[in-house]
Amino acid sequence: MSSSSDQPIEGANGEIQAGRYYGRGIPYLTIDGYPGKLIAIEGTDGVGRSTQIQLLREWLEVKGYGVVETGWTRSRLMQPTIELAKSSNTLNKLTFVLLYATDFADRLEKEIIPALKAGFVVLSDRYIFTALARAGVRGVGRPWLRSLYGFAIAPHLVFYLKVDVETLIGRVLASRGMDFWESGMDLKHGDDIYDSFRTYQNKLLREYASMADEFHFRTVDARRSVEHIQEELRRQVATFLEASDRMSEAVYAR
Asked: Which residue among 34, 102, 206, 215 is buried most deeply as judged by most CB within 10 Å?
């Protein structure tokens, strides 16, 4: 008799084929055979995701690919609500999770799936792994979280921009400074925002590390220069897209 740990995970798990729903998906939106590709750039705050996505988008468009960009909390439906809720610094952990899940669901239906259907390359600044990491740090159960995000689509590529906490602290202090949520102040690690940031970000990095193998993260050293990181991203994306294009041409030639 198999134990519960031997049972397949319902919802988001790394065994799902890229381009398919992790779980039941959105019942009225079938996605089989869509020609577009979904590429997610993950990593904690301050690693340079947005910069890399902008550079990657420009390069892909020069190469002739249509590109659509999406990002965390950019849903027109949910962005104002999330900003208002965060400004009060009173979100409990389940409200936190459900607001972000609603934001993602809205963007998935209105932005990501239509773009994939039309053959675009979708660049996602963060994906569900951000939600899994942040909620995991806050003690939300993993099985429930993964079931919740069963409507998500497994990306074709996930790049994880990895950085150590000391490098991260230097970057954040040199740019915009530390805020309540990025520092995990809601977790009440202490009154000092600097110490809370260090503790919280260390926990986030452990959550990301726990998902890296399962979800096939392509880990990129984010301590390097913007140019070196972009060069590596372009090399890996080019290899993937060229192979995908050859496969599509072979199918059409039959």
From this structure: 215
